[in-house]
Amino acid sequence: xxxxxxxxxxxxxxxxxxxxxxxxxxxxxxxxxxxxxxxxxxxxxxxxxxxxxxxxxxxxxxxxxxxxxxxxxxxxxxxxxxxxxxxxxxxxxxxxxxxxxxxxxxxxxxxxxxxxxxxxxxxxxxxxxxxxxxxxxxxxxxxxxxxxxxxxxxxxxxxxxxxxxxxxxxxxxxxxxxxxxxxxxxxxxxxxxxxxxxxxxxxxxxxxxxxxxxxxxxxxxxxxxxxxxxxxxxxxxxxxxxxxxxxxxxxxxxxxxxxxxxxxxxxxxxxxxxxxxxxxxxxxxxxxxxxxxxxxxxxxxxxxxxxxxxxxxxxxxxxxxxxxxxxxxxxxxxxxxx
Length: 338
Fold this sequence. Notes:
Blueprint: E1 14-21, E2 45-55, E3 58-64, H1 75-82, E4 92-97, E5 106-112, H2 122-136, E6 145-147, E7 150-156, E8 161-167, E9 192-196, E10 199-207, E11 211-218, H3 231-239, E12 249-257, E13 260-267, E14 271-272, H4 277-289, E15 296-301, E16 304-310, E17 317-322, E18 324-334
Parallel strand pairs: 3-4, 5-6, 11-12, 13-15
Antiparallel strand pairs: 1-18, 2-3, 2-18, 4-5, 6-7, 7-8, 8-17, 9-10, 10-11, 12-13, 13-14, 15-16, 16-17
């Protein structure tokens, strides 16, 4: 599809957006909303150019922010833009910022769909790598990206795939953080019991720069069947559980074989999403620590599969998966509303 435009004149924080979709073979149906008249006095609006990318259905609004270390969009504006009914629609807004270190290429910051700011996002950084390659008109290469979780290194591969050196997992309870009692001499929380929604779950806690709680089953020995998980019900109960002082992402994992699992995720600040890259990485780490999984594993998510490897030689985790451009456009944002 080429030359598609969509303009919606509405009151509120997101008042107009213009879409240019690619590739030309795609077809999109556009519904023109019926909106109320704008107020007599409107707040000044700024026009923001963006590109929307998705990694296994985990979708993001990407913003070229290379000229400034301060994000062009506020958390409140990001939440409005992410609204799937009144905004562009996304799981988060990602900013390509100037590097923080002399040997880095870029910095990345993210606002979730609720306006909160996570430390990192695995699917998001794959999308960022494709986005900056388009901006720079670069041949496929490896990037060094500063994040709130430290230096992350995505590498573009043929066929639209991206392999990411996610660094080393963090296992010490205090650093994740969680107040669950450690179960190993090194201070890790592995297969610890937590009662939620009247059930006793076994959890292993891992940080990939952001906190994750992973469960493969219950204290009575029953293993997770993903089809039986009421994610909308139990997800918030784990995210806001007081044993996770910074809240947590939660992964519910069904083991298909030692090298193949199926995973559902409740993301901190975003809720149910189709995929979570850091969650897939944390899942393989947890599975190895519990003696359930191999170090190389396929993780099936609702949006598709990721290949995860936790290398014993260097203790680093490598994630490989796709990232695709959905469309490009502009949106008009009014002044922030606290």
